[in-house]
Amino acid sequence: MTYNFSSFKNVNITGIDISAMPEEELSVLYQQARYCQAMTDADIQTMREIVSENMIFTHLSGRQQTREEYFTDIADGKLDYFTIGIENPVIQADGNTATISFTSVLNANAYGAKGVYRMKGTHKYEKRNGEWIAVNR
Questions:
Q1: Taking the domain 5-135, which CATH number applies?
Q2: What residue ranges in the chain does DSSP mark as E strands?
Q3: CA-based angle 116:50:58, to the nearest 5?
Q4: Among candidates 69, 6, 74, which has minimal Cα distance to 34?
Q5: Whole-angstrom Cα distance, residue 114 to residue 104?
């Protein structure tokens, strides 16, 4: 499969040689980049395709939201992502599960606080019907 990372205009991936990645890891990185682009576009439909229905999001403040609460805040502009960096991603794929750990660099207006926010984290994915879906477990 061909992955067109250049189509993600608001996502910057650094610290990894994409051309040297195994197929499964590349597919996980592509899905993460696709999700980040959807965040900057406030493309809730694409976000719903990528994120499991029972996903819980945790903010830097520790505040937690359901998937729909989080998506509503993006759709309403309470969370407005301009660009997202994926720094130094480390991907591990094993069968139908995968993790991607990286530093997020979020240029955003988050609930009225505009700035660049850096946070390290790990996202988990599960393969369902041939597609990587973000999950909590």
A1: 3.10.450.50
A2: 11-14, 56-58, 64-66, 79-94, 97-110, 113-128, 131-135
A3: 45
A4: 6
A5: 16
CB atoms within 10 A of CB 28: 21
Q: CB of 40 within 8 A of CB of 11?
A: yes
| Chain centre distance of CA 70 | 13
pLDDT tens digits for 27-86?
A: 999 999 999 999 999 999 999 999 999 999 998 888 999 999 999 999 999 999 999 999
What's the sign of the alpha-carbon dihedral 62, 65, 71, 77?
negative
Per-residue pLDDT, 60:
81
